[in-house]
Amino acid sequence: MSTTHTQAHGHAHDDHGPARGFKRWLTTTNHKDIGTMYLVFSLVMFLLGGAMALVIRAELFMPGMQLVDPGFFNTMTTVHALIMVFGAVMPATVGLANWMIPLQIGAPDMALPRMNNFSFWLLVAAFSLLILSLFMPGGGPAAGWTLYPPLVLQTGDALPLAIFAIHLAGASSIMGAINIIVTIMNLRAPGMTLLKMPLFVWTWLITAYLLIAVMPVFAGAVTMLLTDHFFGTTFFAAAGGGDPVLYQHIFWFFGHPEVYIMILPAFGIVSEIIPTFSRKPLFGYDAMVYATASIAFLSFIVWAHHMFTVGMPLAGEMFFMLSTMLIAVPTGVKVFNWTATMWRGSLSFETPMLFALAFLFLFTIGGFSGLMMAIAPVDFQYHDTYFIVAHFHYVLVPGAVFAIMAGVYYWLPKWTGHMYDEKLSKIHFWASAIFVNVLFFPQHFLGLAGMPRRIPDYSTQFADWNMVSSIGAFGFGLSQLLFVYVIWKCARGGRNVSAEVWDDARVHGLEWTVASPAPYHTFDEAPVVK
Amino acid sequence: MKMVKRAFSAVPALLLGASPAMAAWSDINLRVGVTELSREIYGLHMLILWVCVAIAVAVFSVMIYSIATFRKSKGAVAATFDHNTKAEVIWTVIPVVILVAMAVPAAKTLVKIDDARGSELTIKVTGYQWKWQYEYVDHGVSFFSTLARSSDEARQLDSGIDPGSVEHYLLEVDNPLVVPQGRKVRVLITANDVIHAWWVPDFGMKKDAIPGYINEMWFRADEPGTYRGQCAELCGRDHGFMPVVVEVKPQAEFDAWLEAQKSARQAAASPAAQTAQSGNQIETVAALRVANAE
């Protein structure tokens, strides 16, 4: 009797679906709606941050100042980074988590649905403030995304807006993280033990703990900036007994785990996709989980490698050099395991797999340059040059962003019930993969040859490679419009797909056992995992 | 418009790889430099670079082989294995061994960099928005060093001046720092407003200039010449326009230069001396910080 009732209930929901219009999105507590909103938000921010990157690359196209004032150039580098980190990459992975974690663990929704809604809309408020700060007297924030004092204290009226934006985005992240942890800990389907969870769930669980650990630290750091600026404290002012380097220590204690907050979910996505298209289980599942946990642990004890030139004692430099080099071990394990997953598999090269493979190669290149700069004496040369810019863009763009795109192509048919346009998506892939290298590879050369980062104009010896890099930037930027079109087209229609979507995907995760498109409510009754 | 035209005419040359400058190794790699430290750092850089290249060749070969061989379209049937303890132990241990082998020479160089004892000349460098002040602390000589006028005119928005026509565009100053060849020079680095970083790539080192701190580094330049670098820490609007230029002269020439500076300064009560007076307060705070730290 009760079974019949449940089924009828479920059907009723499938039929009438959510409320219509703007109110649906404003008040929704459905993990799929909120996931979609996060993803759309991050795509908008990706395009906005990308437009700012193009302002930067246009000014750097050739020597001399042609387009913008140097102050506005600094605003662009600063806000580009803040938007890409907190507005594009992080919300994209949160959006994927919202959509996929309940589907992957067999839960009906996130554990705290109202807080889920609140954390999304806080993010909108945060970025409205940040964008508003661009129009304040004195110009937008221009001290770099790291907001180092004393320079950041020279910001005009934009400073409080940017800091409140960070507070709100941080609060949003913490709520999202709590929600993810509670969901994973409490709502797993019967039989799904921790070591049976999909890797994407595992990496997000660990990421969520990192977020809770470090976002308050960052909030504290920027609050001290606020009181230094407005209330006469001197936390970071040497003249009042404070210490500008203290800020850097606090910032990077947040900032280094932050880079893993961006990359660990990407590891998870790639760990889902490579097995599916290799038609083989993930190699070394346990090792992958332990490697992720090791990376997360190490991320707390390496922060000062961002500060080798501040004048630390020798012992400090030695410690942070050695601890940083250690990260290569678990990261290497991950790369080797992905490779071993492909070994003797039966590979096919749909768009998600192409992006995952590009990730594998190009993230590894970013890993190598990371290892190079772990060597402290050499980092004295690399530090604050374009070599660093090349490194972190390799791990973030063909790293995190490609993994997110891989995830979007992988799960888009599940979300919409349609296959995306395969031809256009492959054009999008090849254009992105080629231009991203044209864009960022020459920046290694520029940095080694001595070009500092964050400069709006440069000596003529750097002209050639800057021009190549700018051409790559415009090619990469334009390619992303195609991405938007492919998603739009897929949402509107296309070939209908089965529940499994990909060959035998059923064995790779619970999400492939529900219909495509995934009904508005899934797993009203928990599935049983063997 | 002229700029745009020039830009477009350069594009085909770039695409063809015809630009002769691109062929130069020094344009895409770290400089060897002219100090013992810079040469050691260059050696470490090349060592870790080749280690990375070797690992990359090995790992990427396996990936490419897998992609080429184990294709469904070629009828490959997937194996079912999902772990191999022996392989996993091997590829955990080998990286550890490589890292230890890397860490030893790196640590040695780090110790050497840290050792500023036995210096023969001390220069205090102070960063300002947006210029450098150089003080020969034992000789009472001090002056400011700012971007050369020719570069400053050309770098204005839409100046109409082709940067290519300016010699050492953005890397030329009015008063370069002058140091003796072959002497261990200790540099004390601080700042008076925001954080800057003093960097000469050919000397192998950069160090942050931080208000309230006095940082220390040293170099011994083996060859006379002019060496150019830039501020390397974002310091505001004109961060890109405060180059560092150092002239290394043989000892005799250096001595003559220093004497000329001294007598010029005695002749006129220089404005620079007054600036140094008003800077005293901050120096006291800075000195206290260092004392506390030790």
Quickly give the structural class of chain B: alpha+beta
Low-confidence stretches of chain B are 1-22, 277-294
Biggest sheet of chain B, in brief? 5 strands, mixed
Compute the separation of the termini of chain B in Å: 58 Å
| CATH topology-level name of the largest domain in chain B | Immunoglobulin-like
Question: How much of the residues of chain A is beta strand, in percent?
Answer: under 5%
| Mean pLDDT over the residues of chain A | 94
The best one-word shape of chain B is: elongated
Number of strands of chain A: 0
Count of DSSP-assigned helices of chain A: 16
Strand order within the widest beta sheet of chain B = 3-2-1-5-8
What is the helix content of chain A?
A: 55-70%
Q: What is the largest interface, and how many residues per chain?
A: A-B, 97 and 107 residues
How many beta strands in the DSSP annotation of chain B? Answer: 10
| Sheet with most strands of chain A | none
- Overall SS class of chain A: mainly alpha
Please count the helical segments of chain B. Answer: 7
Top-tier CATH class of the largest domain in chain B = Mainly Beta
Order of helices and strands of chain B: HHHEEEHEEEEEEEHHH
